[in-house]
Structure formats: structure tokens, C-alpha cells
Design a protein that fits this description.
Elements (H helix, E strand, L loop, with lengths): L4 E7 L5 E3 L2 E9 L8 E10 L2 E7 L1 E4 L2 H7 L9 E6 L5 E11 L3 E12 L6 E3 L10 E5 L8 E2 L11 E2 L4 E2 L1
Parallel strand pairs: 2-9
Antiparallel strand pairs: 1-3, 3-7, 4-5, 4-8, 6-7, 8-9, 10-11, 11-14, 12-13
Length: about 170
Amino acid sequence: IANDVRILVEHPANTSVVAQPFVITGAAADLSAATGTGITAVHVHLYRDGSFVAAAAATYGNPRPDVVAAYGLPPQFTNSGFSLPVSGVAPGTYKLYVYAYSQLSGWSAYVLTVSIDLKVATPTVEPQSGTYESFAGVLMHTSTPGAQIRFTTDGTEPTPTSMLYTGEIFV
């Protein structure tokens, strides 16, 4: 039997960097199914450094008329969408295996690599911006444990290579 299972992962994109929480979304269908989508389950497994981390069943059967239209599929594949919210995963680079089960073809997989960042709370800065008569020490804090604060002095958005805040700054 030919395997006609198609798995499309829309979010996150392969090799992307995402902040938590995020939702894995896509569509899965067995094109050889006579009725319905032919898929009875979608599961997602996470691996880090070759080691299994977690697995969960995605919600399957979400309406996806856009997928049907984009790929010229018959209307029977409309409810081929899946979604899985992700949160509480340690930051790092993961392999995500998205498995779809078809009663005709068995399990099929789509694999992608995703870097998951920890969502960091917005830092607070003391004192607030303004004009001061004398030198002021600037303190920065974030409520996210273990987070690094990167900053700039020219008003541009900080990047991973911007200056690292290590303590009070006198201006």
C-alpha cells in the first residue's frame, strides 16, 4: 500500500526561534482515504540532544478550508487541521516529530528543528527616564529567573550581542 499521508506544519517553521507559549499548527491528511481525512490522531514528540523530552496528542479535526483550496483537495479534507499549545519547556534546540496516524497507512512523521526561547518578562528600569541634576545610577531588573538583560545606549532594539547588564550603571 502506498503511503499517501501528507503532514504540513505551519508553525513553527523549520529552524525558527520561538518564544513560549506558542502553538504548533498544521494539517494532516491521507490522500488515499475514500471518506474523511483518513487521519485518526496527530501526536508531537520533542527530543533534545537525541533524548526524548515529551510527547502529547494534538487536537485534530480543526477546519482548514484554506489547505483544501491551496492544494486543490476535495472538501472531505476540510477538517484536517491540528494544533498543540506548548509551554513550560526548557529553552534550547529541539527536534519536533509530528506523527499522523492513518488506518490505511499507519504512522507517518514530519520532523523539524526548532529553538525554543524562554519568554522573558519585560525588564524594569530605575530611575525612569528623564532629566536629572546629578549623576544617577541605573538599575535594571526582570522577574524571569536566570534571564540575561541586554541593552543599548542609542535607542535601538537590543540583540543577543548587545551589552550585557551586570550591575548598576552610572550615567
